[in-house]
Amino acid sequence: MRDAHAINLSWLLRLRWGAIIGQVTLILGVHFGLGMPQRLGPLFATIAVAAASNAALGLWARRERPIREGLLWSVMALDVVVLTVLLDLSGGPFNPFSALYVVHIALAAVVLGAGWTWALAVLAISCFGALFVDHLWFPTQGSELSSTHHPQHHIHDVRMHLEGMWAAFAMAAGFIVYFVQRVTRALAAREAELVAARAASARHEKLTALATLAAGAAHELSTPLSTIAVVARELERHLMRTGAEASSLEDVQLIREQVARCRDILTQMATDAGASRGESMVTLAPAALVEEALEGLPGRERVRADVEARAREERELIPAHAFARAIRGVVKNALQASAPDAQVRLALAREPEAWRLTVEDSGAGMPAEVLARAGEPFFTTKAPGEGMGLGLFLTRAVLDQLGGRLVLHSTPGQGTTVVLTWPAGGLRQSATLPPEPSRVQLAP
């Protein structure tokens, strides 16, 4: 991810090329179009210096290296000096395009700190003042103010001078608006990338904490739950031998059932939180991944799958088991949200550089406040016992590892659409995943 100075430098390079082209066009237009002779040799030599510096800076900036604010100031200071030389060769302070000094000061205010901006403003003011010294206060023999060159300034033609000022103002305004807007959008995009990176880091921290919590809970609770299960079983056998009342037997059986449920919850937490964390990568067709996810799923007959032919031919390097569980969880959510006789549509398609899996249900949908929290760990709208609110969270974690993303669209009364996308090519071989937490089996 490029920093702000690198973004500013890239746009400054583009602006300088635009300025160079504009300067050449303007000089040729004045010299040949308006019939006002200009000193083409020195003018084009000055522009060549700016072009050479921009080309060299562009080659230098291609390498990955830190960009410092002082470099940006140096480039802009060179532009101020080049502008001063061009103005000195073409009318000095009488040249209406001296208004372009404002462009450099405005750009400095956008991309530089206060100290650097003031330094550039002082430089621009000094350079502009030097034009007055050379052309007004102490004109030298042979300067443009001599009688032989006096017409070049067009002092006698106020109308043309004012029109030139208008053109200079329009050019300066256009440069400022264009550059400031593009840099602002580039910086906003970078800020969005930073926000997304921070969100991904936060999700990773939550996933790590969840895995640690699940492993710790399973470890700490395995012994007391196993003890309760064994004692409940012995108590049930004793009551059966002594002919105890049916209600007592039902209470003991309820205790055993609840202990078994606690065991299953802890096992599922440890499994889900760590399933994708240490799994090795395998090469698998995306269609086979979907088939694995749907295999044995209750309500499988209600899923209408539409899989492209390419999904059966191409192979991807992915954590197959964890990814299949993630897809299975999304489809299971869709089945639970839909009516018992309603279908769930699943579509797997190949995009130019990614795979897109879409799961659509016909349920009640989610309001905006619920949709905003969907995917948070332990947030669920399901009835107790139907889920722990980890499905979407873990699915997003798997997609983050693949460089993909999960997007939800939902409208109350119109169902929910979940879109999973991941890059074609799968996870890079060099990617590493944290170790999987330990799993503890509880005694029945």
TrEMBL record:
GO terms for molecular function: kinase activity. Keywords: ATP-binding, Kinase, Membrane, Nucleotide-binding, Transferase, Transmembrane, Transmembrane helix. Pfam families: HATPase_c (PF02518). Residues 216-426 form the Histidine kinase domain. Its EC number is 2.7.13.3. This is histidine kinase. CDD domains: HATPase. It comes from the Bacteria. The chain crosses the membrane at residues 12-34, 40-61, 70-87, 93-112, 119-138, 158-180. It catalyses: ATP + protein L-histidine = ADP + protein N-phospho-L-histidine.
